[in-house]
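Sample entry (64 residues):
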Amino acid sequence: MHITHIIKRDGTLKTFKEEKIVSAICKAMDATKTGSRQSAEKITQEVITTLSKMKQIDSQYVPS
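Predicted structure, serialized as tokens:
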């Protein structure tokens, strides 16, 4: 199952955008002077895989 939406910290429902996760991980890697965009993309895929598994268990699941 695909993740289509997320719940933001303020409780609003937003469209899930993979690039936002990649960007956040890249910024963290830049701040610590480690990793690369390729590493960030790999980690993002692992996150998406985990979220998808959670969605399979509970079809009503919306990550926050």
